[in-house]
Amino acid sequence: GDRTVRVRTKAHGEVAELADAFNAMSEQLESTERQRQALIGDIAHELRNPLGNITGWLEATHDGLATADPELIDMLLTESVLLQRLVDDLQDLAQADAGRLRLHPELTDAADIADQVAAAHQAAADERHITLRSVTRGRLPVLADPTRLRQALSNLVGNAVRYTPAGGEISVRTWADGDTVGFEVTDTGCGISAEELPHVFDRFWRSDASRSRLTGGTGLGLAITKHLCEAHGGAVSATSTVNRGSTFRITLPGAHVRPAVDPHRSG
Length: 267
Ligand code: ADP
Description:
The chain is an alpha+beta fold. It has helices spanning 13-62, 70-97, 110-127, 146-162, 208-212, 221-231; strands spanning 106-109, 131-135, 141-144, 169-177, 180-187, 235-241, 245-253. The chain is globular, with a radius of gyration of 24 Å. The mean pLDDT is 88. The structure holds adenosine-5'-diphosphate. Adenosine-5'-diphosphate (ADP) binds at residues 155, 159-160, 163, 187, 189-192, 200, 205-207, 210, 217-223, 246.
């Protein structure tokens, strides 16, 4: 409900300014509280599905209405893996919010990261008859937390695999431009409409199409990727055409090995 506290005043000058500042603060607090409530609602909603399925199947087995055959075990496993991912993702986001998501940056090769992430998704791509390749040339040094950078890129490649139909193609590229090192994940998938594109990095946002389809997503992957890129001093962006495909780009500040400075020379 609308319980925002507002100060009404006919005052001028400093008192009016104070009242305005107070009212702005009050509105900000209320909107933060609304966001918090919406987030908890979203979390409950997302947990309910896999948990409900697991409980339902276990009850049916318990009551002798279903048998614990390999197919059923597979279904239970899929649901519990999804639950696990949801909880892991939520923990990452909670740590990010609290400023407790610690990065351990080291001199890392972006090309290595791209190759590793592509390799990790190769089996899933093969299974779906999608061609996945990494196109990397030479070393691209970045100062980054390799585990977190792999996670950020892996979310993009995982999505590309998930939202690309059989016969499609996915490429993971790396590039460098001046002081910037970049990753680019291009797919020939279902794409994202112009109206939906601005929302893809929001928590729990999923297109209507991906909601209705059983894609096994959590709606948190891109929010986490965005946070991780920004925590590295970089950014993530996307362009897309419906039914043609999408390109997601990560840019990071490159690590430069600067020439040693001679303290006896000025300038
Ligand atoms: P999810 O776990 O649902 O994939 P994400 O945060 O990773 O959550 O992505 C949010 C939504 O953005 C997805 O549900 C999907 O609708 C859309 N999306 C993300 N990546 C792609 C892609 N490569 N192609 C088409 N749609 C995508």
